[in-house]
Specification:
The structure is a single chain. The relative contact order is 0.18. The protein has a single domain (about 1-85, about 150-230), classed as P-loop containing nucleotide triphosphate hydrolases (Rossmann fold, 3-Layer(aba) Sandwich), CATH 3.40.50.300. With about 230 residues, it is an alpha/beta fold. The protein contains ten helices and ten strands.
Amino acid sequence: MLKIDQLYVSYGYIEAIKGISLHVNPGEIVTLIGANGAGKSTLLKSISNLMPIKSGTIMFEDEDISNVNPTKVVALGVTHVPEGRRVFKDMNVEENLLLGAFLRKDNEIYSDLEDVYERFPILYQRRQQHSANLSGGEQQMLAIGRALMARPKMLLLDEPSMGLAPMLVREIFEIIKQINHEGTTVLLVEQNAKMALSIAHRGYVIETGKVMLSGTSTELSKSEEVVKLYLGG
């Protein structure tokens, strides 16, 4: 579904991604784990074309999306929930959600809005409130709900648990599992490696812009290096 081959991305003279190759199959949850500054978020931005690539290719469903307009990436079925949620704080909850469907021309937008409210009842209760007044967990739900309004085939999630209380972290990860179970492929960047590996099918360990290790979640969970560096072993 997604295939990245020998990707290089730079911030000026600094190489952030150094020849990364990876793939995501339809129906999978694949997680990227690694330290801060390893290049994980940059990789997601490159897929979304929020960050231009230097060389290499990004293929989505056999179409080259390297350096195309970000709007086209969304139109093809890839939506991005960025680190820090990035909700529009001067808009209310419902306006934020409807903005997620800005490319759609079908007649089922409001039906999907009801589905989001069913998945996140708190958003229905807050639907007329400015998103600036939501808690961190509510803003994360709003960011995910807004992405779902585009009816994505693949969801890119960047640090969905950041700044959330442990109970909310568990709730967010259950939601991710449910979204995947309903047919959406997920590429997940997450500092909480233990939680990420508990729901993912496979994973890649990224260090200083390179893939250093990959395998099934079970294999990575048993890796001495992963346990020592990321699982608190």
